[in-house]
Amino acid sequence: MFFLARYVIRRVIGGPLPPTPEFDADVDLMIKDSVLRDARAWLLRDGDWRVAKQAIEAAGTDWALRGYRLGVFAGLADDDDTWFDAWARAEPSDPSVAMIWAKVLAGRAGRARGGAVAAKLSAEQIHSFHTLSEKAAEAGLRALELADPRDPGPLIRLMSACFAAGADPLNELYFEAQRRDPHNFDMHELAVILRCQKWYGSHEQMFEIARAAAEGAPAGHKTVLLPLKAHFEYAMREFAWEDRSDESQKAVRRYFRRPEVQRDIDGWITKFRSAPPTSEQLSQVRQWMAVYYSLIGRRKDAKVVFDELGPYVSRFNEWGWFWGDMEYGYLKSWWWANGVGGV
Question: How sure is the predictor about 116, in pLDDT bands with cuts at 50, 70 and 90?
């Protein structure tokens, strides 16, 4: 009843609300990359693998864009591999074929494992995860053999295999990937996650990697916002790892309201905002900003970011960490940013 009253007041005083976010919209509505969007539609309509090949090759040496397009086509191949099998038969040594297959296997490994903490996994889940991860690593090595020596993509895929294989090769893979593409977001994000406390590192290592990557990246590059990811990982591990109670959530909010935490995060956001974005794929980092502003109660800043995100959204884990459910956390914060309800 209180929410309804707030909604009516907001409509009367504040004017019409933006469209309520949709989480299950057609993928085409969320893809900003027109080349990819057109190629995906053609592929789904005609099953012609050549349009996928052309779209990937059109990325040239923009390795981040190439990786993004490969990921979308890997998702399609995982859903229906008829077109991909035809491509693999026609061009078995195409590096894009090798990378798509490695991504498909890695995705299957992740689904086999599930999202639970290690202590709650069954023996079957663990076995399937490791078996599929080994196959994904083998496919990644094949992709590395075939790829352009400037392409960091296969190295990033091999970094991902460290979740199952352990962190021994991580430093070498990370170093070489940085040599090839110094500011690659996926590469640095993987390193931050793998060196966090819940995997193979510590809070200190995680923050060191995130801040070094952000410091080196140019203004407008989404890698500048990786320290936000580190702060979220820290807060989740310290305050919300297995406890999602009200007290846990209060502890999370107290952490993000510390002056030194806000100075750090605000500084990186300022750097990111000080130049035009260097990528169209910004939903993830914009949601990081929205999570931060919602946690600390900065409504106007949150609304700016939610407006940038628009009505079609693929939600990210941080909403679930701090609100218990990704969709609930996003919508509750979106309503609050638009003047309805509390956060």
Answer: low
Beta carbons within 10 angstroms of residue 252's beta carbon: 21
Extract the tokens encoding 127.
Answer: 């076995």
- pLDDT tens for 159-187 read 999 988 899 999 999 999 999 999 999 99
For 132-158, the DSSP string reads HHHHHHHHHHHHHHHS-TT--HHHHHH
Q: How many CB atoms lie within 10 A of CB 26?
A: 9
Q: What is the H or E stretch that residue 235 is in?
A: helix 226-239
Tell me how far apart the 2 most distant CA atoms of the chain are, in Å: 63
DSSP characters over 77-144: HHH--HHHHHHHHH-TT-HHHHHHHHHHHHHHHHHHH-SS-GGG--HHHHHHHHHHHHHHHHHHHHHH
How many residues appear in the chain?
Answer: 343
Give the three-state DSSP class for 312. Answer: strand
Contact 164, 134 (CB under 8 A): yes
pLDDT band at 113 (very low <50, low <70, confident <90, very high): confident
Q: In this structure, how many other beta carbons lie within 10 angstroms of the beta carbon of residue 24?
A: 9
Residue 210 contacts residue 183 (beta carbons within 8 Å): no
Check the CA dihedral 301-268-179-156 and report its sign.
Answer: negative
Q: In 3-state terms, what secondary structure has residue 224?
A: helix
C-alpha dihedral (62, 190, 212, 218), degrees to nearest 10? 20
The conformational region for residue 262 under phi > 0 = left, psi -120 to 50 = alpha, else beta, is alpha
- The residue-averaged pLDDT of 89-115 equals 89
Cα–Cα distance, 98 to 213 (Å, whole number)? 28
Q: How far apart, in whole angstroms, are the C-alpha atoms of residue 321 and residue 118?
A: 17
At 270, phi and psi to the nearest 5? -60, -45
Domain boundaries, the chain: 27-165
